[in-house]
Amino acid sequence: MGTRRTFLSASIAAAAVASTGIPAGAEQLGDRGPGKPVKPQPPDADLRAILREIDHQRIEAIVRKLASFGTRHTLSSQDDPVRGIGAARDWIFAEMGKWANENMKVELQSYIQQPAPPRIPEAVRITNVMATLRGSTSPDRIYVVSGHYDSRCTDPNDFTKDSPGANDDASGVAVSMELARIMSKRRPEATIVFAAVAGEEQGLHGARHMATQYKTAGADIQAMFTNDIVGSSTADDGTRDPRTVRLFAEGVPTAETPAEANIRRSVGGENDSTSRQLSRFVRSVAVNDATGMNVRVIYRRDRYLRGGDHIPFLEQAYPAARFTETNENYAHQHQDVRVENGVQFGDLPEFCDFPYIARVAKVNAATLWSLANGPGTPKGVRINTSRLTNETDLLWQRGTEPDLAGYEVVWRETTANDWTHYIDVGDVTKAVIDLSKDNVFFGVRAYDKAGHRSPVAFPTPQS
Ligand SMILES: [Zn+2]
To answer: How many whole angstroms separate alpha carbon 37 and alpha carbon 24?
Structure first.
């Protein structure tokens, strides 16, 4: 129960937001620090046009088609033309192939997964379907969105029983495919990869192969998102939240080295991983009237007892996060299709909310298009700690984008969860800010001539 005292301080914080535009959490310095309040980045005309093209009827058709293959279990038939994962793979490949062109290549990425008991009892071919839309000016900078097209029933190794997998995860595959269709007609500045992967339910195998291939090739993956279980807005108690999607973003990086852990402990970077910066970016570009959605960021890698295809990318130190519906219904996931005591179990298309999946697709589209048309995340961002001062010395490398226009230093109170202030420092590679690095967190982001921002890079100390 709130006391009068907590009520009053909450009102004061709310009044402060209303009058200054500076979110709560900045109240320790109020608006006394340098810079202007950070604001969301509104969608431009191109992005609004993309969002309008996202079609819930096409998404519904994709989900129903994928469910019609009976099972898409990773160990199911690879050559039956109508039932099993091979039929699903061939259909996705053919469908994405319709949108292939000189800028967008659609391909199968296959490998033989060696036995990995208990869920891979013998060697099996695993195939990812990937559509790569090559960037016009920064093709080496890559953003990946994926869903998994394999499915399962109650027994994780039963590859014969029906496993429609409408929500888990035809919904996520539908997001990748619908965005591939719409964006294939356009040309982003950086490269976007739309993927449907397999082997997720057997141990994240397809995504792990993809992430490892990228790492081996030295690919500059600046963000990866998996959409997994984004199909329903209804909780198991019947309540609905059709305007929110969760985004799981880890704090302490999965791939952190002991040296990086030492730095994090000493400067307090546990809330400033690349995935957390990405989650802040998503909220800044995808929570607006054009998507009609709120993004609820969850500060953990994934839900209890669960994992997803973002994890293999995190293992390779790529920034990655997971979209998932707000309220899950466990009677509709990983369940044999059956009726028990009058209750229908199973992951059936009838439990999906297709306009909801379309709005999740809009959140993804706003995120990917803004990332791929803005500058890349600044690299080599350092905070100079060679001398003790009450100022802050920041330095970074200049990006290579032809439309790069400059940089902003952002900062926030150490107790705030998102950046509150920005200082436009222009087209430079260092800045001295009259604010002590001991008392706030700093970051650096780039902007282009059209005003698109990059995600924020969190500096590491350099003495
Ligand atoms: Zn899943």
So the answer is: 12
